[in-house]
Amino acid sequence: MEGVLLLNKPVGMTSHDCVAKLRRLAKTKKVGHTGTLDPDVTGVLPICLGRATKIVEYLTAETKTYEAEVTIGFSTTTEDASGDIVEKKAVDRIITLDEIESVFDSLRGEIEQVPPMYSAVKINGKKLYEYARAGIVMERPSRKISIHELTLLSDVTTSDETVKFKFRTTCSKGTYIRTLAVMIGEKLGFPAHMSYLIRTKSGSFHLDQCLTFEEIEQHLEHGTLEGQLISIGSALKDLPKLIIHDTLAEKVENGSVLPLPSEFEHLEVGAPIVLYNEDSVCLAIYTKHPVKQHVMKPTKVLINKQN
């Protein structure tokens, strides 16, 4: 069994938990996820099975779409609903739709964001959440992110001196929606946190393509799970593509260096080129040679003499 399984990740499980469960269900060790979701977050989590684990790094999508809820009135240690309260300030005035739209306008485009302390970002070889659990607050460098879309999805509701509303955002890889919720609150003049989050899209993968664990178990029981997997070739369809004939295909299977077609000369070293045979089988991923001119070298051979 090989390919990409689109999981609708449930609440309460880490991405690692999901991988471990799928290893047990599919009875294979070759399982890997393509992008971490926090335990409280649900939604699109592409999981690679079998040889598809070789393409994990190419499926960490540059853009993702989320639907979230922000609660205005108190902030937390983790910037989401699971943390301890850090600061409270009663929302003692009406927050208008025009105000929210003005804040959204200020956050669209390229902005600076400081990663939260409870995150897997590494400083001095140690993850930030490890420092946070030890009660140490580290200085974190800001990073540039892009907010492509920021849209209000709900009415603004008031309860117990707090205000809540839902929004949708499409953003660049590396964006923390928890921190975005905090930033929205700050611009409105109040502490805030993210109280709900679902990832609805990761690259070209949509939520409506995803299976729950219950559905996965049903497919396994009926022997139909393999038909639900996205092939390696289909998963890589948005990357630069080259179809080669059988003679070259044999060289690819042996990991040979090949001439670089002129249409790929503009690519940077490291940019992937996906090679398919004439039967549309994905054979390998190549890139421009870092030293030799007009040549490309393999970075991942997906089908070789040993397969």
TrEMBL record:
Any Pfam family: TruB_C_2
CDD domains in UniProt: PseudoU_synth_EcTruB
Active site as annotated: 38
Keywords: Isomerase, tRNA processing
Gene3D superfamilies, alphabetized: Pseudouridine synthase
Residue intervals of the tRNA pseudouridylate synthase B C-terminal domain: 178-221
Enzyme class, spelled out: isomerase
Single Gene Ontology MF annotation: tRNA pseudouridine(55) synthase activity
InterPro entries: PsdUridine_synth_cat_dom_sf, PsdUridine_synth_N, tRNA_psdUridine_synth_TruB, TruB_C
Highest taxon in the source lineage: Bacteria
Domain Pseudouridine synthase II N-terminal, first and last residues per copy: 23-177
Enzyme Commission designation: 5.4.99.25
Keyword Isomerase among record annotations: yes
Entry-linked PANTHER family: PSEUDOURIDYLATE SYNTHASE TRUB1 (PTHR13767:SF2), TRNA-PSEUDOURIDINE SYNTHASE (PTHR13767)
Family membership: Belongs to the pseudouridine synthase TruB family. Type 1 subfamily.
Official protein name in the record: tRNA pseudouridine synthase B
Gene that specifies this protein: truB
